[in-house]
Amino acid sequence: MIIVLKANTPKEEAKKLVDAIKAKGLQVDISKGARQTVMGLVGNTEVVDVEQIQSYECVDKVMRVEVPYKRASRAFHPQDSVIPVGNSGVTIGGKKLAVIAGPCSIETPDQIEGVAYDVAKAGANILRGGAFKPRTSPYSFQGLGNKGLDMLRDAGRKAKLPVITEIMSADKLPVFLEDGVDIIQIGARNMQNFDLLKAVGKTRKPVLLKRGLSATIEEWLMSAEYIMAEGNHNVILCERGIRTFETYTRNTLDLSAVLAVKRQSHLPIVVDPSHATGKRWMVADLAKAAVAAGADGLMIEVHNDPDRAWCDGAQSITPAMFADLMDSLRKLAPVVGREI
């Protein structure tokens, strides 16, 4: 249920209404826009007497929210959310595109530092790199673990970029927080690991939530709701392709999800064309298509020697290819009301 307040409602009147609602055991999320203030009610709203709420002088209208996700819903939060990335000055959402770039897996200090400098020079504003790798085969390279985290953190500091990496389990959360990870990534395979979602929800770190391999948009937003229900509203969604009957590409990139999310939710959404396609030659064109569709950012795999990469080299582009892509995006972004 949401309550829309009249314009210029005095704070004292709004507080009386909030206190009355909380007295019924409900939580109240307040979203203040340029023209109106919206109160989102979370809990058993059956106890709310709509006529009684409408009798308050400050109330413009009362509406029930039909979707099961509340805090992630645009009805609760009409304005687009803009997520700050620590104290870096980087944000995800809004006019400026976020460009996340780096290797699938961290291999050596020279490798991650070299890529970090290259993508920063080209215009990326966030460094990615996998320290813990969820792989289909137990015999595939699983990442360098804590050692990789240290390498990523050091490379980010040297290149002056905030860093993002994937967490595999809640027990690793203290290490992520101590090692200065700026954005915690929840991978596709963990999208419905509800204990992990609750754990990152208890932090206030930005969380990038990848769509599950076969997840519907509603299931994806419900997973975001798990994080937000614990108090962490700094959630970024990532479309990375879904599993279909098609075998030519690694997954099927669902750009319609960008439009659907924008209509249903206020959360920013980025697109990962690297994991979606699994093919290096497709990455740049689909990245541009994602920006044209309204994505708030991109996640691109970049490796200095992709043919010898320890992980996912076939979908990784070179620093030179990434620089060319950034040049193209600088021309495209203003056409769709964005900037790099």
From TrEMBL:
EC number, as in UniProt: 2.5.1.54
Domain DAHP synthase ferredoxin-like positions: 1-66
GO MF annotations, alphabetized: 3-deoxy-7-phosphoheptulonate synthase activity
Enzyme class: transferase
Pfam family, one: DAHP_snth_FXD
Domain DAHP synthetase I/KDSA intervals: 84-324
Superkingdom of origin organism: Bacteria
Cytoplasm keyword on record: no
UniProt entry keywords in alphabetical sequence: Transferase
Name listed for the protein in its UniProt record: 3-deoxy-7-phosphoheptulonate synthase
Organism: Megasphaera intestinihominis
